[in-house]
From TrEMBL:
Residue span of region Disordered: 436-467, 695-785
Pfam family, one: Kinesin
A GO biological-process term: microtubule-based movement
Ranges annotated as biased composition (Basic and acidic residues): 458-467
Predominant subcellular localization, coarse grouping: cytoplasm
Protein name as it appears in the record: Kinesin-like protein KIF6
Gene that encodes it: kif6
Binding annotation for ATP: G95, Q96, T97, G98, S99, G100, K101, T102
Amino acid sequence: MVKHTIQIFGRIKPTKKTAAVYSVDNEEQTGASLEFVVPRDLADGFVNNKRECYKFRFQKVFDQTTNQEEIFEHIAKPVADSVLAGYNGTVFAYGQTGSGKTFTITGGAERYSDRGIVPRTLSYLYECFSQDSNMIYTAHISYLEIYNEMGYDLLDSRNKASRLEDLPKVLIMEDPDHNIHLRNLSLQQSANEEEALNLLFLGDTNRMIAETPMNQASTRSHCIFTVHLCRREPGSATVRRSKLHLVDLAGSDRVSKTGLNGQLLTEAKYINLSLHYLEQVIIALSEKNRSHIPYRNSMLTSVLRDSLGGNCMTTMIATMAVDRRNIDESISTCRFAQRVALIKNEAILNEELDPALLIARLKREIVSLKEELAMVTGEQRDDQLTVEDIQKLEELVKAFLDDPDPDFTLSLGPDMRKIQYCFSLLKIIILDQQGGRNKHSDGQDSSAATGMQEEKEENSHHSAAEVDKLKEMLQQRDSEIRILIKMLKKEKKGAEDAAAQFANITSDQTASPQSASRVSTMPLLKEGSMDTVSANHAGRAVQYMQRGPQLSVGKKEAFENFIRDHEDHLTIEDNKSLLKQRSAETRTLREQLNESRNRITELKKQLEMRRRQRAAHAAMANHTNFEEEYDPVEENLCKHIEQEKLAYKSTIGHLKALRTEIEHLQLLLERSKTKLHKDFHKWWSQEVSSVQESESGATARCHMGSPNETLQPFPAGTPGFRAPGLSSTTRDSPAVQDPNPGCPSSSSQEIRSITPRSGPPLRAVPAWNNTSLDGQVTDSPPSSEWRALASTTVSSSSIPMTGDQQTDADILAFVRARQNLLSRAGPAQQ
Ligand SMILES: Nc1ncnc2c1ncn2[C@@H]1O[C@H](COP(=O)(O)OP(=O)(O)OP(=O)(O)O)[C@@H](O)[C@H]1O
């Protein structure tokens, strides 16, 4: 058992604003200190307004310039090490909203170097697994979000959650031994780093997509990413199970300060309530002789029960913003940390016997004991040795005879049948070796040997038949496997071809096969669905659209503009070019690797040749110990090989790091794309409803003004209505005339620049003009239907367009049919 107090670290968020006066001293022998000096006028707002200096102790305080790597090395790595050893571990970030909790735990979404504790810990854990060949490790991952006292499973892979409530709800259960179980929280096995990172990405995407207006940017929810580790020695029934919780708590801002009302206030109260219960638990734990700890008051404290005052190595990161307006919140974060530092945990090695492995081991022991018993009591086992037994024994005898070590023993266990069989084998071998010399020299021996020989022949005949049967089965399986591989390749090729058409971000051939499969599993657009979008449009829009549902033509165009003006666009482009650069670097490194491998092979050949030559010379000169003689050529070749091997290894290291970076960049891009989609849809629906509102008002007015209008203008689909960024006016289409000048829904309505209330402003584009991505404007109308419509001269009508390709085609067909009918009926009736 390891007793220790919860470790507390401080991290100060970089600021460009005027910072409060504070000082960090990491040189102190007993840890570090953080001191705030608050001027008297500011101090008035605090509980103790007489004080001007507030000094707090931490294990270490990381000032503004500290990077993510240092945070991982100092804070998370030691916890990860104890988890690898079999102890539970928790790292949690606490601090006011915007102080850098998510940045510290998960990381920033823009740069690879901004990776937070979670991805870095995953990389570290999997690296440790691969380096420790004496142990078998298995890892499972869960990702829980707690919001308003309700748990949600973030690893829901259905990708359908648009609200938090769509995610599976997690319920907390307690068994009679007071162990907490989380029902509905999925535990996903991850065999390697990439799978684990994909799970993190899935959880973060769900976290982002499912964020409600009330829950923006995770401010008001707690997120717990957990790695469940299992470690055992091969063949051993003893397993060590440990858990690592990486926790991003909700913002700790005090409600009175936030000035909230309504739903937000309820929410803030919930959060505050759960953080309040967390504080209560922490106070109770820091007090001596407190028997009752109120863990059950909230879901958060129930889940983190082991991490606080239990069986866990726990570390807290207090995140702080030091600009002057945040100083009181930072001081209260420090106060909270001081209390946390008093809590003592007792971490125990979570070692247990795996029942399944234990049963298997006990069964083996029973068999062995039975055999021993039979041997001691002289009881003979009369069942025959199986073909496998015989083969194994023959191999054992061969190994025994081949081993030059005189101490090497033939261990057969306490089974007399095996012992006798081996003896008979040995005898046959000896007799064989004696060959003709002793053959038939003694009639009795000879007949015994013949008897044994016959028995052996019978056995081998028997086993030959079995072997044939097995060979046949093997062939059958081989053919099955070949067929399956062929099918798989075909499937994979189909998927890759489709993915390659649409995904140029991930089209790099050097990307890992796993990432390729990630791309191929994305929903793809149907062929031909892009016919009216320019090639350029198709390229980029499709890249972004891979995640979401198919968009109509107008929406695609609007999306194009939206992408261009989105705040994340530059970051995405930067990451894309970085990805390309890294992929190119990977290609170069691969080439270097191949060259290095070839050089090593060549050098080895030369060395081999040299050795042969020397051996041949020595043989001619009858020179026996030539191998010990110094040969400068050989020495030089060996040196070269070693150098090449070193270079090879270092290139492999580089490649591995590059691969991780590429995978991370791909995930960042995916996340940005998802965000873009989400933002676009939000903005689009806002625009649609606002246009609908204004158009319906205007339509009502126009109706009153033109009672004789035959074709009724549609509220939201008139040519005057324009999807954001999409052509809307009929200015360039003289065939379509405005029946109601001045009416907002009429065709004469000029370009209306729609500026989103949220999201980037979009530029207006003239009707019939297709604006390509590079900004060139062409005169072609956006679709053939439109051209046809123009030529049918639908005068004095406003054609409603919905933006949905199918629906719009139906409307146009209807209009054309009507036009035909009217022209047949004659102009008089029109
Ligand atoms: N150490 C840092 N270096 C650079 N940027 C940072 C750092 N810490 C935080 N940021 C930036 O500050 C912003 C807010 O950080 P973050 O979202 O991590 O805060 P938070 O404490 O998790 O907030 P919330 O409680 O609302 O979830 C982000 O844009 C983030 O990238």
